[in-house]
Amino acid sequence: MSLLLKNLKIVNHDKILENTNILIEKSHIKAVTGESPEAKEIIDLSGFYAVPGLIDMHVHFRDPGLEYKEDIFSGSKAAVAGGVTTCLPMANTKPVNDNSAITKYMIDKSKQCGLIDLYPVGAITKGMKGEELTEMGDMLEAGAIAFSDDGLPVMNSEVMRRALEYIKTFDSFIISHSEDKHLAGKGVIHDGKVATITGLKGIPAEAEEIMIIRDILLAKLTKSRIHIAHVSTRGSLKLIKWAKEEGINVTCEAAPHHFTFDENSLLEYNTNYKMNPPLREPEDVKAIIDGLKSGLIDTIATDHAPHHIDEKFVEFDLAAFGITGLQTLIPLTLKLVKENKLTWQDFVRLTSYTPSKILNLSDRGEIKEGKLADITIIDPVYTYIFDEKTNKSKSVNNPLFGKELTGIAKLTIKNGKIVHKI
Amino acid sequence: MAYVRKDLVGLKDLSKDEILFILDQAEKFKEINQRDVKKVPTLKGKTIVNLFFEPSTRTRTSFEIAGKRLSADTINFTSSSSSTTKGETLIDTVKNIESMNSDIFVVRHAFSGSVKFIAENTKAAVVNAGDGTNEHPTQALLDLLTIKEHKKKLEGLNVAIIGDITHSRVARSNIWAMKKIGINIKLFGPKTMLPKETAPFDSYIAKNLEDAVEDCDVIMMLRIQKERMSSVLLPSDREYAKFFGLNKNKLKKAKKDAIIMHPGPINRGVELSSELADCTQSVILDQVENGVAARMAVLYILSNNI
Ligand SMILES: [Zn+2]
């Protein structure tokens, strides 16, 4: 079984090859070449871009327990439709992914589905209660890759310290959902001008920043590894910059919604813009884009958080936090490329190359001979409506739903197999 | 000039002309309220539902009287704001009552933005009777009516709004309207009760109570919610009275003919001393009276647009 993808612009983190072909044999890349070797199947893709299959370090697939929002099958379909071939589902399922049985369930179901690689994020604490450590070693053996109580912060610093220490034994790392619960209080949007105007309760930027600096300092104390999830403020970035300069082992991610929208989107009380961390100020958006460019921000992760329409079509204070993201990842990131804020190489660095390094997945993240044939073919100018037909998630909680998008995964290849095409 | 909107959700989005148009209409109804027979047949056959998802007797009664004086059928529906105790979504509740041919909903709700949410999802005209900490437009309209009655003008006046600004829908509605009309505003309260970002209010933030009332034509004291006492926002009502309450001595800084306002109910001895609440400069009962005229005006104007 061999497949030849022809006449592509191949983008890796370090360079672009024009008019090049990719020969895939079985699950791996056999050759990246200007020549046209023989193959069983040949697809001409003139004018399109090939990037390494996207790696999303932060999704919520709601499976087990909340399958009315999403499940591993629908989540995986949304992933490949968005060009994503590797996902890290968070542990806030029902029950919580705090033991190897749940981890194994997720991986087995994903294998059954067969569209993407799923590397579950296990909970740091049992039941995500912030008190006792989970059996992290056992979960790693079952296929987990990192640990986080995402959705809830680990408020107790002693617990976080011990988690960071314990995980070192297994050479894994902790992902921090940085939020001081007391300071965030009952806030529902950013504590800024729009909170003043709308009368909606604010979550100050400092609720995030206080926990980021705490976790950075705990990583310093323990000489362990911390990854900061969904960074949303310019202050957070200053703290992370300092930590990196100090040589503390910290990486971080930003979500597309945080570099696309700001608090002004909340003026009309549209619950599809309600998320945690909240949309911040225009200056924060700018700082995030600068951080993506400079490399201060290591990766783009969607924080794909599907919710049923009944959980969004309610009073703003009662609406669930979260936005879907898998299928808007490419169009929103490409927008930055089109505005010359990022290059195509930056796109690849942020969406696959650096994630593969952080996750120690040396078989992917590059289009190179010998690597897994996880390849996403992008049509950057294709314009379409993000509607019921395009949307593969079970949920539609995204303010861009029903709107026009430009840029799409035309073809997604996972382990040499075409798993999505338009 | 006219008012062509389906609803009155807030004063933030209205133009100066729209606000003045409602006030003009309210002045006409005020005249009717002074007659022996106070009832007019204007809204005969119309159904007004007071949809209150948060307890309130004063505002609801005021709207009820306003509706009755216009000969509308007024019905009261009381529920809870929390979806868990209600067991039905907000919009389902609204659609149910809408099906019984309601023309106007007067809505009070504990969450900011929820009256707008209802207005967008019903054919009925919607009047905001207070949504969370967002707006209470008819309160601001009655306040403006009262100020105009006593000061014979609005533009150029100096107004102090004092108290829990962050959590006050009365303050927000007044601020938006007054800025449009050209009234100078000073805001004062404990820093725990002022928003982090005060720039959108485009108002002077006073340093202390004396600074706030100095040279003012109008002093509007906000009600301090009892549940906010002895919390992280305020140490005690004793301390509140001392630094943020208005008394005779502090009033001296204001203009001689300054009027004192309060949306009620008053916590005597906390935000306002008893002697001031009952003094000749207090227009608190005029506010209550004007509330009926202002609400009649709003109901009448909206019913014309149905
Ligand atoms: Zn999170």
Can you walk me through this structure?
The complex is a heterodimer of chains A (422) and B (306). Chain A is α/β, with parallel strands linked by helices. Chain A has 2 domains: 99 residues, Urease, subunit C, domain 1, CATH 2.30.40; 307 residues, Alpha-Beta Barrel (TIM Barrel), CATH 3.20.20. Helices cover 31% and strands 23% of the residues of chain A. Chain A has 13 helices and 19 strands. In chain A, the strands form 5 sheets. In chain A, strands 1, 2, 3, 4, 5, 17, 18 and 19 form an 8-stranded mixed β-sheet that branches. In chain A, strand 12, helix 6 and strand 13 form a beta-alpha-beta unit. Chain A is globular. With 306 residues, chain B is an alpha/beta fold. Chain B folds into 2 domains: 136 residues, Aspartate/ornithine carbamoyltransferase (Rossmann fold), CATH 3.40.50; 147 residues, Rossmann fold. A 5-stranded parallel β-sheet of chain B has the order 7-6-5-8-9. In chain B, helix 1 crosses helix 12. The longest helix of chain B is centred in the C-terminal third of the chain and has 21 residues. The radius of gyration of chain B is 19 Å and the shape is globular. The model of chain B has no long low-confidence stretch (mean pLDDT 94). The interface between A and B is medium-sized, with 21 and 28 residues. The site of zinc ion has 5 residues of chain A, from loops.
